[in-house]
Amino acid sequence: MPTNVFIRGASEVLKEFPFIVGLETVRHRSNLLSEESETEIQYLTFIYICEGKFDWEVNNSIITLMTNDLILMKPGDVFSTGLSKLEQGKFQMLCIEAESVEHFLEKYSQISGAEKTLIDGLFKMKTPLLIQNFKNGKSFFEETICEFETQELGFKTKVNSLIDNLIVMIARALSKQEMNIRDFPTAFEKLDLLLRSNLSHPWTVGEMAGIVGLKTTAFTEKLKFYTGFAPINYLINLRVAEAMRLIRNTDYSMTKIAFETGFYSSQHFSYTFKKLTGFSPKNFRENG
Amino acid sequence: MAKRACILTIDIGTSSAQIAAFDFTGKETVYRTGSYPTFHPHPDWSEQDPEQVFITVLFLLKGILNDQEYTRKHDIRAIVLSSSMHSVLAVDRQGNALGNAIIWSDNRACHIANELKHSKMGETIYANCGTPIHAMAPISKIKWIKEQDREKFRKAVKFISLKEYLIFQLTGEYYIDYSLASATGIFNLKDKAWDQTALDFLELDPSYFSTAVEPSFCELKLKEPYLHSLRLDRSVKLIIGSSDGCLESLSSGSMDKKQAVVSVTSSGAVRVFGESIIHDEKGRFFNYILKDGIFISGGPTNNGGVAFEWVARGLAGFDNDFSFEERLMRFQNEAAKVVSGSEGLIFLPYLQGERAPIWNSNARGTFFGLNIIHQPRHIMRAVIEGVAFEMYSIAKSIEEHREVHSLYLNGSYATTPLWSSIICNIFGLPVKVSGYKHSANLGAAMLGLTTLGIFESLEESLTIAQTGIERKPSERDNEVYKRYFSIFQKLTDKLAPEFDEIAKLQNDY
Lengths: 288, 509
What we know:
The complex is a heterodimer.
Chain A: E1 5-7, E2 20-29, E3 38-40, E4 44-58, E5 61-66, E6 70-73, E7 78-80, E8 88-96, H1 101-108, H2 113-123, E9 129-131, H3 136-150, H4 155-178, H5 184-197, H6 205-211, H7 216-227, H8 231-249, H9 254-260, H10 266-277, H11 281-287
Antiparallel strand pairs in A: 1-2, 2-8, 3-7, 4-5, 4-6, 4-7, 4-8, 6-9
Helix pairs in contact in A: 3-4, 6-7, 9-10
Chain B: E1 4-12, E2 16-23, E3 28-35, E4 47-48, H1 50-65, H2 68-71, E5 74-83, E6 89-91, E7 101-102, H3 110-117, H4 120-129, H5 138-148, H6 150-155, E8 158-160, H7 162-171, E9 175-177, H8 178-181, E10 187-188, E11 193-194, H9 196-202, E12 211-213, H10 224-229, E13 237-243, H11 244-250, E14 259-264, E15 268-274, E16 286-291, E17 294-301, H12 305-314, H13 324-336, E18 346-348, E19 366-368, H14 376-398, E20 406-410, H15 417-427, E21 431-434, H16 439-451, H17 458-461, E22 467-471, H18 475-494, H19 496-508
Parallel strand pairs in B: 1-5, 5-13, 9-12, 14-20, 20-21
Antiparallel strand pairs in B: 1-2, 2-3, 4-7, 6-8, 10-11, 14-15, 15-17, 16-17, 18-19, 21-22
Helix pairs in contact in B: 3-5, 11-16, 12-13, 12-14, 13-14, 14-15
């Protein structure tokens, strides 16, 4: 495979992708990079290890990267190489002009509102992000480089969607990595926090199950075992609890409260609230 | 067909609400549970969302009371409340919760408690109120809010527990039972009123607290919409009830003063009945009012089953094809293969600091005696034995004031065959193992049925207790354990300065 370098300014094709600063394949021997070099990352940087093994240091923690691993760094992260004199291998790197994945999604991506929130949530869990054995990295770089080189019909759309796809695949891998399905209680704790911070999202059971890395039926069964609730009922409890808080502590209209807490209409909100508490939301504000 | 008369009990536990109804012979007729999460905004903090706790209870209640299959055959005559102790929630003039409730395991008020404990005022407060001065106690938590969250303190007109919040939601009134009140560290056990010294410490007047009443108090009136949505009749009594600790003890079926109730769930406690409180110079024991002239005294540990869950998670690689619950079970089987004493491995279970009997939040977990023959199964057994030694050391310190001749075991861990046999052999005492899981609910039913007049006295209600198997200790194992326990205790004493040092390091980095 040739060593491909696409750098903003030097490469014509990148004019079509103003947010891409560079995409390159780097063959690396330890003596090639200056010794113990420390760099502050400028861009949202994805590095995928094609061959070999590297010991790098990011924000003072040592990370060993093996073939097929992907690491994601963001501006401000401090990155050093040269910890080991013996490293040798090849990696591919994509740099995007964005402060964070959130920022990228906001400005350049096609990923839509609801899914965007979820994906954001996953990326916020920790940085730098190391995804081990991320085989999708290989095809992403291969296909993107191929598109850059051939510039066939619709290549612009194709590359944009490849990048979105990369983000989605990383998010999925993250969710699997974060959620140990063998340890459901801990995974559920994380899901619970995600639900709370995105109550207005129209959650489906499938989505919730996906977050903890389970199939819908297994998830429903486990949740029932641990919490006593079917997924939708657990969610309704969270929604009504939050609605109660908003009714009491704010002067928001009922429509706004319904929307904020994820009910699809104020009728639906009013009906569910009354069914559970015996009060209509309005009556609850006055007499509850 | 005549409907079966039933009493419904609600236990607001640490991680879930448990609702069980019983007929008048103590037979469970329905059981539902629903959990709510604990949040840790900082490592040492533990909070719960009061609205979610309330909604969870309401949801479960509705599920039972609107289930025609159930209500067709059963007639609920009363509802009795139980709850875990020590939660604190500030509410404003309108009764709105100011943020989350701080629950018992929260340690943020650690420094405040330490300071108070070693002051004259602290001694007086413990002597009057009977709750060990510790971060768990509401007195420490309220002081923390006063010092660290002034805005909240300023807005607050009352400091209540999650149970009081539930009562307020349902009835619009602020009441607390003597049992829960006596777990605040602010309630004078002799006068059965908010303690002046404690109030002085907090610079609050009694209006900041609910009206304290007997656990049999049943003047609470549900708000109209709840009666309606729960399809309850006005005649159904709402009985305020007691705390989970008191009611679990009651469910042992005996108020024998020489019986200790050892309970191990994720945390644990050793409790005894008495007609008076234990005055302990070192302030090590809690004393809660069950009813006029009957107190539950004892000591709590932070490190019960949670230590075993910790080791199960830690040794996950050992058996990774199983889910967490399966693993817990298999680990017990593994541990059972090892002889008493884990072939010379001792575990000090202070993973989360420790309450009774050493009351040292700096204490840390320690394995002692590791050698090359030890396998994961030795580690698992040593962890269970370590927790059991800790229960034994609480009981030993209680024995400075009381006699203990037999044990009653309850809680999800203490009642398993392996744990109960280890506890039995370490104590060298005969044990009865609870035959019913939801002990706080059963205790609440006993209290409720007595209040309804089905039983003439609490003593008489004890007949509905459900005891499972009984065990006799093995003398040989007891001899072995005595020798290990002596090392366990010496290590705990000797390591005190190093516990402080390592805790400081852990806090600094």
